[in-house]
Amino acid sequence: MPRFDEDFKKQIVRLHLEEGKTIRGLASEYGISKGIISIWIKQYREECQKKPELKQEHDYMLEKRELLKKIAELEKENLFKKSGGILREGDRLEAYRFIDKNKKDLGVRWLLKRLSVHTNSYYNYLKYKKRDFHDKKAKILETIKKIYTENDGKPGHRMIMKLMEQNNIKLSKTTVHKYMNKELHLKSIIFRKKAGYKKGKPHKIFTNLLNRNFSAKMPGTIWCIDFTYMKLSNGKMRYNCSIIDLFDRSIVSSVNGSEITSELAIEAVKKALQHRRKIKLILHSDQGSQFTSKDFIEYCKSVKIKQSMSKAGCPYDNAVMERYFNTLKSELINLYTFKTNEELDNAIDYFAFVWYNWQRPHSYNGWIPPKRIKKCA
């Protein structure tokens, strides 16, 4: 054990008496045990206090310390009043909430004393508050599970977040994602994407008027059209031709047939035109033979529709239709088995004109279903 001279010992004692340093702090700073420092303080305290200059400095230090305490107390009291703490006096629940909110600035002990709240009472409140949180969380998890089950496991965390908002439950998508993956182990059903397109031989080509600008200022001014295929349980093919309005992403027409022909495309356009005002219309499609056929082109001219076409073999130029068909297949076609044409046609009609248009939140519309947004005149 190293030996310390008298001057060093007195210096340590002065640091404690004059500057107010704690025994623990001095022990940590100088590498001396707290017991030894305590002995030195007992040994040299009287000597230090007998010297007038040291006694005077010590008294000044104590006076300064008391003054700082009073200033800190006044600052806390002022902050307490500004924060509305005085309004919580007499209301136990409000007092608990106020302590919980301001404990970092004012300190729990000070607030408990100021509001005359017993320590055990406050910590019991925290315990029950935590229990309430777990009760609410359990209800939220049950709601997520219910929505997921009712929609056959199709919605992901973003969709469930928006569907929960319709039930007046607001959570961030990060929270919903965490609850679905870590708490409930639920995942949206995802199917493999089909193979890429093969570039076809151009026939009659129209200029691409959209250039991937899939937006419209008014309803009924820009439509997109395309085909997709489906299989019945007996292996027979069924084809769907749908048209989407780029104003709100609503389905304006959806028809099915046993063959993918220009007649089916014309039927889809006729159906869409039934409830549309007579204004200029652009119809965007890919370069499929159905849309470049003589019959389809002449029909479009007869009803004053201006055609627009994607680049051959580039599905991104008609991404809106690709996205819709992906949704149709992942949320309907790939989940169920259809034995007859009638079963499939009815299911697609309900999906397009009821679920997709009126109920399913759409990200393009700020998570509002297409038919529920306010349309301009």
Describe the structure.
This protein is α/β, with parallel strands linked by helices and 377 residues long. Among the domains are: 63 residues, no CATH class; 151 residues, Ribonuclease H-like superfamily/Ribonuclease H (Nucleotidyltransferase, domain 5). It is built from 14 helices and 5 strands. It has a 5-stranded mixed β-sheet with strand order 3-2-1-4-5. A hairpin with a 4-residue loop joins strand 2 and strand 3. The longest helix has 32 residues. The protein is elongated and about 115 Å long.
Topology:
Layout: H1 6-17, H2 23-30, H3 34-50, H4 52-82, H5 92-106, H6 108-114, H7 119-150, H8 157-165, H9 173-183, E1 222-231, E2 237-245, E3 250-257, H10 262-273, E4 281-285, H11 289-292, H12 294-302, E5 305-309, H13 319-333, H14 341-359
Parallel strand pairs: 1-4, 4-5
Antiparallel strand pairs: 1-2, 2-3
Helix pairs in contact: 1-3, 5-6, 8-9, 10-12
Structure, briefly:
This protein has helices at residues 6-17, 23-30, 34-50, 52-82, 92-106, 108-114, 119-150, 157-165, 173-183, 262-273, 289-292, 294-302, 319-333, 341-359, and strands spanning 222-231, 237-245, 250-257, 281-285, 305-309. With 377 residues, it is of the alpha/beta class.
CATH architecture of the domain at 222-372: 2-Layer Sandwich
Characterize the quaternary organization of these chains.
single chain
Strand order of the largest sheet: 3-2-1-4-5
CATH superfamily of the domain at 222-372: Ribonuclease H-like superfamily/Ribonuclease H
Helix segment count? 14
Q: Major sheet, described briefly?
A: 5 strands, mixed
Structural class: alpha/beta
How far apart lie the N and C ends?
Answer: 94 Å
Low-confidence stretches: 195-200
Task: Indicate the overall shape.
Answer: elongated
